[in-house]
Structure formats: C-alpha cells, structure tokens
Amino acid sequence: MKSAKPFQIEGRHVLAGMVLFFGSVIAVNIVFIVAAVNSFPGEDVRRSYTQGLNYNQTLAERHQQAAQGWRAQAALIDTESGPAVEVIVLDRNGAPLTVETTGALRWPMDSRRDHELAFESRGAGRYIAPLRDLEAGRWELRARAVDAAGRALDFEADLLWRV
Q1: Is residue 16 domain-resident?
Q2: On the chain, which terminus has fewer CB atoms closer than 10 Å, C or N?
Q3: pLDDT by residue (tens digit) across 56-90?
Q4: Burial class (CB in 10 A: 0-12, 13-18, 19+), 19
C-alpha cells in the first residue's frame, strides 16, 4: 500500500493564488470606475477651460450688473399644471422690470437631469417657466434677464423642491 503524499504548496499554487487575488482586485476596481464615470461623467460645464480664460470679462460684466441695481427673486412653485420656476425681476427702486428671461434648472451632480426653461411673462416683473415633472431635491437655477436696451442681469439661486 502506497501512503498518500502530504500536500505541499508548489509554484503553480502560488501563481494561481496571486492571479486570483490580483484578478479580484482589478475586477473590483473596474466595477468602481464604471460606477464613478456613470454617476459623474466629468466636466459638467461645457468649455470650462475657455470660460476660465474669459473669467475677467465675466467679472467685469457682473460688476456692471451690480451697479445697475437690479435684483431677482426665484422660487420653485406648485401650479395647477405641475411644478414651475417663478422669477421676479425688480429694479433698484423695487419696481418690476419688463425683460426677456432665459435659464436652466440644473441638478448639481448629473447634467442629464437638467431642464432648459422657457419663461412666460405674467406681468409686474413676474415670469413663470412650467416644468413637466421635477424630482425632489436641491436644484440650481442659472438665468439671465435682458431688457429692450440690452442691459442684462445674470443670476443664480439654489432652490429646494419637495414632492
């Protein structure tokens, strides 16, 4: 009767263990990388490098806008037809302004959820942009109001929507 040989770790066992260990580490890293890229694909603002180069011009425009004294108030409201963005644009003295308003409602972490806004005048400096649907959470409004003389106000607001 032949006795069984005791188990010994050989080179092929070490190689198999190392390949399995590093293979599992690489597989987990690939899963995390894919999840990270799908949840935030990178640059959220188009042409951010060019915007950085033109930042001094942006600062000068904002300074000029501040000097004219306009201000804007924004809110998310619930209307009969669903959620909407309401903006009220006032001059230095609190009088309503007649302006053309454009903007976007942005979800901070995913630009695929952003909404382009089409504002409708409701009189007395009040503008409404209806939305079809809106997920609950914190939204960023970026908008621009321009009067007939070409004077503008760029404004931003953090808005909270609760269903």
Answers
A1: no
A2: N
A3: 888 888 898 889 999 999 999 999 889 999 999 99
A4: exposed
Model pLDDT for residues 115-160, shown as the tens digit of each residue: 999 999 999 999 999 998 899 999 999 999 999 999 999 999 999 9
By DSSP bridging, strand 152-161 and strand 115-118 are unpaired
Beta strand 126-130 pairing with 120-121: antiparallel
SS3 assignment for the chain: CCCCCCCCCCHHHHHHHHHHHHHHHHHHHHHHHHHHHHHCCCCCCCCHHHHHHCHHHHHHHHHHHHHHCCEEEEEEEEECCEEEEEEEEECCCCCECCCEEEEEEECCCCHHHCEEEECEECCCCEEEEECCCCCCEEEEEEEEEECCCCCEEEEEEEEEECC
Look up residue 61 and give its amino acid.
E
| Residue 97, domain member (yes or no) | yes
Question: What residues contact residue 98 under an 8 Å CB cut-off, 6+ apart?
Answer: 121, 125, 147, 148
Q: pTM to 2 decimals? A: 0.68
**How many domains does the structure of the chain reveal?**
1
* Residue-range definition of the domain harbouring residue 127: 69-161
79 in a structural domain = yes
